[in-house]
Specification:
The structure is a single chain. With 191 residues, the chain is mainly α. It has helices at residues 2-15, 21-36, 41-95, 100-110, 115-127, 132-137, 146-158, 163-188. α4 (100-110) packs antiparallel against α5. It is elongated and about 95 Å long. The relative contact order is 0.08.
């Protein structure tokens, strides 16, 4: 460090008469950095600097994945919470003499999302000419609606009345929802 200060002083004295003080300062600074940084560490610094943006991108990707999973869980929970209302409304429409395709259209128009979106998909499939039983069976992949879709598809094929079946599904969905709420309440204090 003292050697570098002396070198800067000598070089600035040599070039001071020619107006090259800025050149000398730049050379001195470069030499100081070269002298101060141990061999091999400059490569590590470059690698660290190169990896930082990737680390940030990975962090953003993890945050986005977490937010997506959280949104998916919230959507699934909302679908499960709406099963009793959907089944009750469908049962009322069917008991009033409406055909299933009209009943699902009516329920989809009054129920909130995301259940309305799922029911609209069933309506669109039926409108496009998909067999009604097959359109109902597509609900098997929707959280909370697997049994409902399967039983509605079976009822459409056999012609059996669906209103009592839907009321039974509504009762079961309410029981499951109450049990899940109790389980969540019990684990809330543990966390």
């Amino acid at each position: 460090s003292a050697l570098m200060a002396g070198l800067v002083t000598v070089l600035s004295g040599v070039f001071a008469g020619s107006g090259g003080l800025s050149v000398v300062a730049a050379i001195a600074a470069a030499l100081a950095v070269w002298w101060a940084v141990p061999p091999g560490s400059a490569g590590r610094l470059r690698r660290r600097a190169a990896n930082r943006p990737l680390g940030r991108v990975a962090g953003v990707a993890k945050l986005r994945a977490w937010a997506t999973r959280r949104a998916d869980r919230a959507r699934e929970q909302a679908l499960r919470d709406l099963v009793p209302q959907v089944c009750e409304l469908m049962a009322v429409c069917l008991a009033a003499g409406r055909p299933p395709r009209v009943a699902v259209r009516l329920v989809a128009s009054v129920i909130s999302a995301p259940a309305s979106t799922v029911l609209d998909e069933v309506v669109h499939r039926i409108d496009l000419g998909v067999d009604e039983a097959r359109a109902w069976s597509e609900l098997k992949d929707v959280p909370g609606y697997g049994d409902v879709g399967r039983d509605l598809a079976r009822s459409v094929r056999s012609g059996v009345g669906m209103a009592d079946l839907l009321r039974q599904h509504a009762r079961e969905a309410r029981d499951r929802s109450a049990a899940a709420a109790i389980a969540r309440a019990r684990t809330a204090g543990v966390r």
